Amino acid sequence: MNISAPNGVNGSVSTDKSSDNGMGWRDLKDAVEEDQTLTANCLFELHETKEDNLILSKRLEDLQDQLKDENYIFMSKPYTILNDQLSHLNAEVERHRGLVEVLQNEKDQFMQKEKEMLAKEKSVDSIKQSITTFNATIEGLEHEIQKLIAEKNDLEIKVEEALQDSGKKDFKDEIHVMAASLSKEMELLENQLNRSKDAASEALALHEEADYLRTLLAKKTGEQKEMSDRYNTQVAEIKSLKALIEILDQEKQELQFIVDMLGKECSESRDVLTLKESIRILEDEREGHICEIETIGQSYEDMQTQNQHLLQQVADRDDFNIKLVSDSVKMKQACGSLLSENHMFQKQLQHVNISLESSKQKITCCEEQTKTYIAQAMRTSSENRHLAISRERPMLEVSDAEKELKWLRSTSESAEKEYETNQKRIAELKMELERERSERTKLDEEYEEVKNEVMELTSETEQTTIQKLQNEIKECKAILKCGVCFDRPKEVVITKCFHLFCSPCIQRNLEIRHRKCPGCVTPFGQSDVREVNILNVNKTA
């Protein structure tokens, strides 16, 4: 009994172990089958990715061959369009040069005309002043010429009568007499012409006299004001004298009444005589006052006539001054019109020069843009090669993963992790492909934009293109100039932060103990400063 019990126990344990082993092998088989299905799916996906990569690599090789082929570049549409535009721009430049030469000649001629006009303007003022005097002399000469014509007609009639009456000898004598008289009259006319020349010289003196008369008018107006003040005072005195006369008349009447009363009351003759003498004295004083009033009235009338005469002179001088002012205004307007025409020609020359410079800069910019596009195309081709090399790496990793899948138990987890990493890498490769496609589309869009810009430059008017190019030139100049002084070009780079400045500004900064970049405030040393040669700085400056 003691022996059989342990044997029974050992048999049950062995059956349990065999059943556990069977279940473990089944699980392992299931896991292996699942891994095999997963590996088959992975292989199918890798095969598809290989085919896609082969198609893309073929396309890249075709594009690289097209880019390497110089004949294809020279025969391409954008290159032919750019060549046509360059030839057109060169023709326009030559045409503008011819226009500039023509305008320069016209400018020289205009400057000569302007100098002549200035000289003429100086002489016009004196000529206008002399014209007024000459007109008067011309009218007098016309009257004299009419008189001479009438005398000539009379003489012709007399000559005809003399021919009829007398013979040839008398006719010759009369002709000599008439010739002598005509020569005398010609001398008189020459003298009158000389007098008219003298009158022209006197016109200048009259202009000075006009200024002198203006001063006299000012003085006369002051005197007139004084005379008016005196007149007012004299009128007041006349009124006061009239009041005195009335008072004296009243006193006379009172004295006469007193005399009558005294003559009636007293009979003494002495009192009567004294009263009569006093009355006579008062009458003499009254008559003297009346004479003074009459003299004052006459002087007042004379002053009124003088004032009227002076007012007429002032009105005549004002009319003369108005005429002079109107003539000067007309001459100033003519000068202003000539100056405006001169400014217009100068502006036209400036516009033509600016258009020439802008066209030259446009040509250089187009050449630089073509160079940059070719460089970008070469860069894209090199990047595509690197991408093709990078795509072969995951293929090697997948083959390693297939070898490692044979070790099912030990490397199942690592295979799953590597599978996930491979999926991530495939996704990254797809993203890179999409990026390349987007970059390719961007390049195509930029190429179309450049093409459209070139077409717009040819189709737009010259003024709009000039303004755009001027704005671009200003921006380029601002970019090329130092960011500290905004005056000098960028000549030096700081290698720590790669910021560009002019050498004087950096030299000032190097002299300081704590050297910092003016743009980003990063410290740097003297060894971090390097010189840089920027192309076309002198041209743009």
From TrEMBL:
This is E3 ubiquitin protein ligase. Residues 1-25 are annotated as: Disordered. Its main location: nucleus. Pathway: Protein modification; protein ubiquitination. PROSITE patterns: ZF_RING_1, ZF_RING_2. Residues 1-16 have a biased composition (Polar residues). It holds the Pfam family zf-C3HC4. GO terms for molecular function: ubiquitin protein ligase activity; zinc ion binding. Gene3D superfamilies: Zinc/RING finger domain, C3HC4 (zinc finger). It comes from Oryza meyeriana var. granulata. It is found in: Nucleus.
